[in-house]
Amino acid sequence: MKRGQAAMEYMILVGVLLVVLIPLFNYVSYYSAQHVKVEKLEDAVQTLGKTADTLYALGPGNRDYVWISLPGGVKETSVLGNEILITVSSSGGESDFHYNTIGEVRGTIPTEKGDFKMKVEVIEEAGEIIYVYIEKS
Asked: Tens of pLDDT along 38-56?
C-alpha cells in the first residue's frame, strides 16, 4: 500500500465518523436540554403545590418561602381554585404541568426564565382559612 493511499483512506474514515457522530451529538444534546427543562418545571409545580398543602394543613397564620427555577419558554401560569398550572411551549407543541392542591390557592407565578423566591402564605378571615396565596417574594 502506498503512503498517499493510506492517508486518503484515513481521511475518508475520519470523515465518515464525523458525519455519523456530529448529528448523534446534536440529537443527544437537544433531548438532554429538553429533559432538564421538563424536570425544572415538574420540580417547580411540585414544590409550590406541596408547600401550599403543608401550610393549608398547618392552618391560619402560616407562611413559607421556597425557591423555584423556571426555564425559558413558559407561556402561561395559573394559580386558581385547587390547581397550580404552568403551560410551556416547545418544539413538540404546548405542555401543561399541574398540581392539584388540597385547599384553594390563588396567586401568580412569573413566566420569565430564572430563579425565583416565592412566598406561600395562608390567608385567613375571622380565624377561618380562606385560601393559600402564592406570589413572587
From this structure: 999 999 999 999 999 999 9
Which triple of cell numbers denotes residue 28?
A: 443527544
d(CA 121, CA 123): 6
Cβ atoms within 10 Å, residue 80: 12
Phi, psi of 13 (to 5 degrees): -60, -45
How many Å from the N-terminal Cα to the C-terminal Cα in the chain?
Answer: 73
Q: Distance (Å, rounded) from C-alpha 124 to C-alpha 121?
A: 10
Measured distance CA(91)–CA(33) in Å, rounded? 12
pTM over 0.70: yes
Grid coordinates of 5: 493511499
Phi, psi of 112 (to 5 degrees): -80, 160
